[in-house]
Amino acid sequence: MAANILIVEDEPAIQELLALNIIQAGHQPIRALTVEQAQLIMQDTIPDLILLDWMLPGMSGIEFARKLKADEISKSIPIIMLTARGEEADKIRGLEVGADDYVTKPFSPRELNARIKAVLRRRAPQMTEDPIDAGGLRLDPTTHRVTANNKTIDLGPTEFKLLHYFMSNAERVHSRSQLLDRVWGDKVFVEDRTVDVHIRRLRLALEASGHENLIQTVRGAGYRFSAQ
Ligand code: CA
Asked: Which residues of the chain are in CATH 3.40.50.2300 domains?
């Protein structure tokens, strides 16, 4: 699944290089030259990952990282800091404000992609292509197939994404608005009850193999995928 990766970098040449890298890695770059631009973009789209330059005009990258991590909506977005300063003290400062990783400029495309992949795998496993096994189901993002006892379960595209998200974040309770954010992404005009409709369809599809109880309703809170 392609991840939306927000690049906040004021040097156009470096930004271009980063965007090309991200496209080659199969993801979708979103570009901002300043923190102000990034904040405007984030009013509409919550990115899956942020590549954040340290030295920016106006608010610095490190200040922005601190702000993002203090905000309920943005605190779970993984951040990779970019910097020309390779000193250990800076690295520690970056990680202290909540950045997930750190890349020193000039960086090699291979190193950058490896770090993006590692951070996404850790923080947003549904963005990687690794198959997931949970509760007797196997979901393969590469082939877009879900199987139970070696039989394929028919799922619509939204149900597939929903199940992928659930299986990547098993046992955790997700509110409807969290699911809208993480599964529907930038389509912010979708109503909460749309989530219920797709949950119903997902359960119906899982009934065929007797796995519908994996999707649990948590009263007053939301939904959970639980294999227990
Ligand atoms: Ca800069």
From this structure: 4-127
Ligand 1 center from residue 188 Cα (angstroms): 31
Q: How would you class 63 by CB atoms within 10 Å of its CB: exposed for 0-12, middle for 13-18, buried for 19 or more? A: middle
Q: Residue 71 C-alpha to ligand 1 middle, in angstroms?
A: 24
CA of 24 from ligand 1 middle (Å) equals 23
What is the location of CATH 1.10.10.10 in the chain?
132-225
Residue type, 58: G
> How far is Cα 228 from Cα 225, in angstroms, rounded to an integer?
9
**Secondary-structure class of domain 132-225 per CATH:** mainly alpha
Question: Cβ(218)–Cβ(173) under 8 Å?
Answer: yes
Ligand 1 centroid–CA 93 distance in Å is 17
Residues with CB under 5 A from ligand 1 (ion): 10, 53, 55
Per-residue pLDDT tens over the stretch 123-181: 777 677 788 999 999 999 888 999 998 899 999 999 999 999 999 888 889 999 888 87
CATH homologous superfamily, domain 4-127: Response regulator (3.40.50.2300)
pTM of structure: 0.64
pLDDT higher than 90, residue 76? no
